[in-house]
Amino acid sequence: MQRFQFYNPCSVEDALNFLAEQGERSKIIAGGTDLIPGLRLEEIRPDFVLNIPEINPFSGIKEIDHSFWIGPTTTFTEMVESNLLSCSFPALVRSAASVGGPQIRNRGTIGGNIANASPAADVLPALLAHGGELELQSKRNGKRIIPLAEAILSPYKTCFRSDEILTGIILKKLEPGTRSAFEKLGRRKAMARARMNLTLLLRLNHREEVSELRIVPGAVMPVAKRMDRTERMLLGKKPEPLLIEAASKTLAEEMVEVTGARWSTEYKIPVLKNIFKRMMKQLLTV
Amino acid sequence: MSKEPGKTLLKMRVNGKAVEVMVNPTWTLLRVLREELRLTGTKKGCEQGDCGVCTVIMDGRTVNACLVLALQTDSKEIETIEGLGTADQLHPLQKSFIKHGAVQCGFCTPGMLLSAKALLEKNADPTLEEIKRGISGNLCRCTGFAKIIKAIQNVHR
Questions:
Q1: Domains of chain A
Q2: Least CA distance to A35: which residue of chain B?
Q3: CA distance to partner chain A, nearest, from residue B36 (Å)
Q4: Engineering a disulfide at A91: which of A7, A20, A180, B109 sits with its beta carbon 3.0 to 4.6 angstroms away?
Q5: Residues A127-158: pLDDT tens digits?
């Protein structure tokens, strides 16, 4: 590992002051499950490592009016164990439960999953489907809130400024009756990097027509995003099997438009179509 | 601040004892345990968080010691395999592993035992699925999983 200095801030203010001075030369460490292998391979060579898990206001899950606030250093295990989250965002909790193994979930954090911006991040697509927003803070500019969908620019690159810290993740409560599902496909059950995952959010109106649909495949595109065209195909219509079949085709086309044809495309097209159809079927029989 | 930083004093508790050790900022918990404290029961495997042989318990939760910077463990409580039992007084899990032949080459055993301990502390009577999930971060390259699972299932029988 290249040499670096370790800074353990005693408060949010202390951390922000430090980044205002040394942000360009620093890397923030939370759980370290992505950062430490990167440091070891010298893919990242910071002069300073800023340790944030000990800053109390950065962890925990709170219900505030019509939203939930999740602290950035909340671990995947804490998300899985949270009754608040399990009741309100079951698909998000399933995505957190699919991360690595117990040791990784005990250490890895939701904020780290976002800030590292890996294309194979397990929790990012689920957060996107839920319309997550990020609260960022810096000494110079104070607080700003941005949609997660705008935060990830390219693989491993976010729009966070070097003097900023992610200080919270905000999720608006879902409309009553919203159903959600998450599936992950890895080479094995545990410790697997996602080959593909899929998050669906679905709500039907009293006529059994689709009144809301969010589809976010993960790990198949450089940056996960909602599949608008497929969503629009189903909106306002009854989700009959033939329409779902057609939508699954459009979904695969939308994915290929983003990724281009690759060696794995022939495998991914039928798999994505089938996972989508299976999950829609599950959601419609709830 | 200089580019060549010196060592920093780390204070933590290891197996119930207060420990003070001078560490370099780049050192991991694994390195401190094995090379500074000479607690070599915690094994060094992939060093990427994939194999779980360096599993220790930190403040009640299992972690891969290779994925924690030593200075992140300041004032934490660490439990390693050396704290689990003694040669005269083995932990019930250790007895069960021996009884069920759950040890082959032995390299994954310390990590397996600590994952099993953490699992049982949360859930005294886990189902087969829960046991499999509980040790899913620990690889046994001898592939002796069946006996390891049996040993955990039958620890109190």
A1: 5-51 (3.30.43.10), 56-172 (3.30.465.10), 179-284 (3.30.390.50)
A2: B67
A3: 18
A4: A180
A5: 999 999 999 999 999 999 999 999 999 999 99
Residue pair B138/B53 in contact (Cβ under 8 Å)? The answer is yes
Interface mutation target, options B11, B29, B69, B138, chain A, most CBs of A under 10 Å: B69
> In this predicted complex, what is the ipTM?
0.95
Taking phi over 0 as left and psi of -120 to 50 as alpha, with beta for the rest, A179 belongs to beta
Number of structural domains (chain B) is 2
Which residue from B minimizes the CA distance to A51?
B72
Cβ distance of A103 and B74 shorter than 8 Å: no
Least CB-CB distance to B137: which of A29, A40, A101? A101
How does pLDDT run across A235-248, given as a tens digit for each residue?
999 999 999 999 99
- B7-42, pLDDT tens digit by residue? 999 999 999 999 999 999 999 999 999 999 999 999
Residue A8 has its nearest CB partner, among B64, B67, B74, at: B74
Residue with tokens 């990097």: A193
Distance of CA B3 to the CA centre of its chain: 33
Render pLDDT for A191-200 as a digit per residue (tens, 0 to 9): 666 788 999 9
Task: Write the CB contacts of B66 (distance below 8 Å, at least 6 apart in sequence).
Answer: A36, B28, B29, B30, B44, B45, B46, B47, B48, B49, B54
